[in-house]
Design goal:
By secondary structure, the protein is α/β, with parallel strands linked by helices. It is built from 38 helices and 17 strands.
Length: 831
């Protein structure tokens, strides 16, 4: 977090007026003028204790601890600019902005920017809050009450100095309603829609599910455009209309058109905001006719469904991102007198509510009675809790339930049935699953997307927001088909897991990625199978997922689920053997040596009885890694890998052969047989590339890097570990990725970069703790002590601070740190 002052501060915003005209008039000299303007303003602010927060283009954002200092800096800056052709508008406002890693945020920041934006070049506009702190400064001129473009109530504004300027650029005559509170966030979205409406788009429809704040957002867009349309900006609320044919007279009334609306609009330049169009969609043809007959008309509509007009630009309004939703929660809580900070509890509340502005506001209102911690505990079922919205808001927005019901009631029977059925999915789901489980038809899915009840998330996948899914689940619970539907759901995802298991070696990356996307539904399927008494089905599914849980480091969860499934199953020797193989490998990575070994021994005995040499060979691979990683038994590991290699060659499993060969290479590295290990790893790399096997290629690079590091060739080791890291990333295997980071750290230490080495190694340590594991291999631990341990010893007391810094470094950032180092120009002779 930046070291910025907190508490009551006076904010100064500046902006160059007519920058485009200046550029045209002065050409290449404009850059020098802009630089001189920056120097003069910075000097003036610095002399009065100003702190520069942000600079964007030709605009400044400064803060001052005292309002008088801010006023003095602004006046001095304006005087310094008089001899130049640059004219700057300035605004001062005093408040208590929130400090984040990115700087200041909050409503006071927006307010100060609005005050500055309404002025003119050479003018200093002051808010009432700042004026009250300036005391007896005599040259302050009252400018009267004005509505700023935040749509709040009129505010009394002032001007420093007695200069003569045009009227302030505030909201002129318009019927835009007052807003109860300023808009939070949405800066990018505002810029997008403003660009659409000012760059040729004549009809823009803002769509989104109930509660995303479409109306408040669109009102802000309209407010920004006041003054740019010669004949005004007009808001036409449609929510109360019962019939589509009432839309045209409602528009006429808002505009004051007494006769023909089409005739009235001829030659006019205006913007119509048609708010809440979803229940009168048949009136879209009326809007189309108005657009066709009035070339100066622009239409901004809000609707849960697009209008389907020629030339329409649909703009889906997504829920708020985490930072903005947390800020909204804090601001709304403060409005009812509850001082709350945007901590992890607030972030968790906002995540649970999908970042829906209405849901966040309703939850913030509950902080009058509940602490955020208690509120979070009670959000297991959000809909009953989120009631009691503002009495002056529309009835359909006073609870989240009625907001969602508003959209649901507009569906036909087929749409309502599918909507309820889709709640069976626990997360995002693919089209094929919706078709197979819910008998979904594409046209009906499109209807739900258009109604903003279902979200299309790309790659033929869909998502119900959690709050929407809860509403749909209540509907499903009242129907007669929950159990059969959940059974179909479980069978679909069990079949998916089996298909992934069969293709896990040949297409590991693709299948692991697919299972990760569907992990929530796979969990739900497991839970349903166990709860419905199908213990054997749960064991089969858990056994099929073991390799995935290992690959993507869901170690503790995977081990727990498999052991639970094994305990609940009654029969099925093959399925049990597979589940025990998976349990053994997961237990081994978690350090549960005895339990892991027991599972693997039983599985290997079963595969031998069943005569399945392919699965027995896979089990031997897992046994080899377990005794190597955990027990440090290189001889036992080598025997297991060699036996696996022999079986795989006998059954013709060429891809499996490379996996067993990788195990052999690893043991040779650990035994210090570097020459033999390097030669065999080179062969492994050729085989992996020939078979397009990314995991085997990753292993080959890693073993080659180990050989270089053991020999003290640290520059070559760094390059090889980085190649191995790049090969490991697509696998999604965070354990293997973490080993590569340790390898890079050791190479850096050997290359005389101990500071970076310690930061990287410490990040891995913290990441392992978060996974609940701590792999330990004798030869690897010795290498870590040789390089990283030596680096800590050489740096002495400084190493503790570096280690702390590294533990705070996110894992993804650590990966990027390792990849950012330039690779040597020369090619690796071994590869």
């Amino acid at each position: 977090m930046r070291d910025l002052p907190t508490g009551t501060l006076t904010l100064l915003f500046t902006d160059v007026e007519g920058s485009t005209s200046l550029l045209r008039a002065h050409g290449s000299a404009y850059a020098e003028l802009l630089a001189e303007h920056r120097r003069l303003l910075r000097d003036a602010c610095a002399r009065h204790g100003g702190i520069e927060v942000d600079t964007q283009g030709d605009a400044f954002f400064m803060v001052f601890r005292a309002a008088g200092d801010a006023a003095a800096a602004a006046r001095e800056g304006q005087l310094a600019l008089v001899p130049t052709p640059v004219r700057v508008r300035m605004g001062l406002h005093t408040g208590e902005p929130l400090v984040t890693d990115e700087g200041y945020v909050g409503l006071d920041v927006h307010h100060a920017a609005r005050v500055a934006a309404c002025g003119h070049g050479g003018q200093i506009v002051v808010s009432a809050a700042t004026r009250a702190l300036l005391g007896d400064i005599v040259d302050v001129v009252e400018l009267g009450e004005h509505r700023l473009k935040d749509l709040g109530a009129p505010e009394r504004l002032f001007q420093l100095g007695d200069g003569a300027f045009a009227p302030l650029r505030t909201l002129d005559a318009t019927n835009l309603p007052l807003a109860s509170s300023p808009l939070v966030g949405r800066e990018r979205e505002l810029a997008d829609v403003l660009a659409l409406l000012t760059n040729g788009s004549r009809e823009v429809t803002v769509t989104g599910p109930g509660g995303t704040g479409k109306t408040r957002f669109a009102l802000q867009v309209a407010a920004e455009l006041v003054g740019t349309f010669r004949d005004g900006v007009f808001w036409v609320p449609l929510a109360a209309l019962a019939k589509p044919e009432l839309v045209e007279p409602e528009i006429a009334q808002a505009l004051g058109a007494r006769d023909s609306l089409a005739g009235f609009m001829q030659g006019k330049e205006l913007l119509l905001l048609l708010d809440n169009f979803e229940h009168v969609l048949e009136a879209a043809t009326t809007v189309g006719a108005l657009l066709a007959n009035a070339g100066g008309l622009r239409v901004l509509a809000t609707s849960r469904s697009p209008l389907r007009l020629s030339g329409e630009r649909e703009y889906p309004l997504d829920p708020l991102p985490p930072v903005d939703s947390a800020m909204l929660f804090v601001e709304r809580a403060r409005a009812i007198g509850r001082e709350i900070t945007a901590d992890e509890t607030v972030a968790a509340i906002c995540r649970r509510l999908d970042g829906l502005p209405l849901a966040v506001e309703l939850a913030a209102a509950r902080t009058k009675l509940l602490t955020p911690e208690t509120l979070l505990e009670r959000l297991d079922r959000a809909l009953p809790l989120l009631t009691g919205g503002a009495r002056d808001g529309p009835a359909r927005q006073r609870t989240l339930r009625t907001t969602i019901a508003w959209s649901y009631d507009l569906l036909d029977e087929e749409g309502r049935l599918l909507f309820a059925r889709l709640s069976v999915f626990a997360g995002g789901f693919p089209l094929e699953a919706a078709e197979a489980v819910c008998d979904a038809e594409l046209e009906t899915l499109a209807t739900l997307v258009d109604a903003s009840l279902l979200k299309s998330i790309g790659d033929d996948r869909f998502l119900l927001l959690e709050t929407v899914r809860e509403f749909a689940a209540e509907l499903l619970a009242d129907a007669d088909e929950p159990a059969p539907l959940r059974g179909r759901h479980a069978r679909f995802f069990a079949a998916l897991a089996e298909e992934a298991y069969a293709g896990r070696f040949e297409h590991e990356v693709e299948w692991a990625s697919r299972l990760e996307r569907d992990h929530d539904d796979l969990r739900a399927a497991l839970d349903w199978l166990a709860a419905s008494g199908d213990g054997d089905g749960a064991m089969r599914l858990a056994g099929a997922l073991g390799w995935f849980w290992l690959s993507h480091a869901h170690l503790a969860e995977g081990a727990r689920r498999i052991e639970t499934a094994l305990g609940g199953a009654a029969s099925g020797e093959r399925a049990r053997a597979r589940a025990q193989t998976s349990a053994g490998q997961l237990m081994g990575r978690l350090g549960e040596v005895e339990r892991g070994r027991a599972h693997l021994d039983q599985a290997l005995a079963a595969w031998k009885r069943l005569g399945d040499d392919a699965e027995r060979a896979n089990g031997l691979d897992e046994l080899g890694w377990l005794v190597f990683y955990v027990s440090g038994d290189e001889a036992g590991a080598l025997a297991a890998f060699e036996q696996s290699l022999d079986l795989k060659r006998r059954v013709g499993d060429t891809r499996g052969e490379t996996r067993a060969l990788g195990g052999v290479c690893q043991v040779l590295v650990a035994l210090g047989e570097v020459e033999r290990a390097e030669a065999l790893s080179g062969e492994l790399l050729e085989l992996a590339r020939a078979q397009a096997d990314p995991r085997a290629e990753h292993f080959a690079h890693h073993f080659l890097a180990d050989c270089a590091l053991i020999a003290g060739r640290c520059e070559l080791a760094e390059d090889r570990y980085r190649r191995s890291l790049e090969a490991a990333l697509p696998l999604g295997d965070v354990l293997e990725t973490s080993f590569e980071l340790q390898g890079v750290a050791m190479a850096w230490a050997g290359l005389g970069r101990p500071e970076r080495a310690l930061v990287l190694a410490a990040s891995v340590e913290a990441h392992w703790e978060s996974l609940g594991t701590s792999p330990s291999v004798r030869f690897w631990d010795e290498l870590l002590e040789r390089y990283v341990g030596d680096a800590r010893a050489r740096l002495g007391t400084e190493s503790d601070a570096l280690w702390t810094e590294g533990r705070a470094l996110g894992f993804d950032d650590a990966v990027q740190l390792a990849l950012d180092t330039a690779r040597p120009d020369e090619a690796d002779p071994a590869v």
